[in-house]
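My main concern about presentation is that the manuscript never shows what a single data entry looks like. The format is easy to grasp once an entry is in front of the reader. For illustration, here is how one protein appears when written out as sequence plus structure tokens:
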Amino acid sequence: MHYKIGRRSLLLGFCALVTTYSIRRYINFTVDEEKTIREHILYRKEESWSQIKYNLTGNPVNHIAFIKVPKAASTTVQNIFLRYGDETNLIFALPRGRFGGGDKLTSQFFFPPPKNRRYDISCAHVIYNRADFSRALPTDTKYIGIVREPFSHFRSMIRFVHPKSVLDMPGENPVLEYLSRFDKYRNKTSISDIFCNKMARYFGFTDDLILKMDQPQIRKYLLKLDEEMDIILLFEYLDESIVLMRRILNWDLRHVLYGKLRVNKVEDNRLKFGTDVEKLHKSYSQLDYQLYDFFAQKLKEKIKDQPPDFYDELAYFRKTRMKYDNFCLFSISNDDNNASITFEGSAWNRPFVITWEHCKKLYIHCVTFLDMLIEKQPVGSPE
């Protein structure tokens, strides 16, 4: 009797695995479908993770260019690079200004690297220009970006910045009023608005492309970006994106664990984002939507093409990240600077210990972290 039940359970488990793999492999993901898939990915027992032999070989990637798009989880991802580079004594492109970036990756906006050195990592705010980046970074640099669903990105930007140009609009819906008057405020020879096509601008789309909306040229530039970027992360699939990134960088998994930073908490009741606002935003931010749709599809295709162990790693990553996050929040809130926690090894990481010092850097403000690195890193002479 027990033997029959065992066989039946085994058969059902195998069928579930096959079904999950088929769904994951052949459907075109949507947010709702992804939620369904996530409910099925934990198909390796938790206790078996530590039994898989550590299999990272080769050298980790130490040269990275990250296109830091504001309000797209980019500060969270930047913190990953800051912690890794700080621990491994890499050379950062450190911004001169207090706003944490510049228009170009040049000595006008960034402290120059030490003599006879190039930057190892660029992860501050800067507009992507391949020629500037190529001069400043080594030839084997991995290029990484991040995008977010454009209307969600717009909402987050407005709520975070609380712009006077929007809040000073009359009426009960200043966002709608602002977008309704957008043509009156937009300079026809340049793009002065900071909330429309924000992502496209960070990825190097020119004012000319934004104004003329020349579709063949836009497509040409998207294909150029696709060729030049090693991966563009997706805000809505952040964990999946980071696991893919870890594989590209050949890093130990502990280096890509993160804590969520700079999350909007204060709401303004006057800031409303209904259907009419969304339609207007889409009409003025067409490049952001094209950019997002293009690279969202690319990332989903990468996910579909991953071997089954990707989903094992994803489940392990989520569990480990939550454990790390909970430990740090508890130790910081209790001011316990003697606290530590040990994590077992797995196929994706060696055993490691997290202390109070690690936790402080997990949640440190990005400007404070950059200031700390400016004090620490030797600076060369301007070109």
Q: What stands out?
A: The chain has one domain: 50-375.
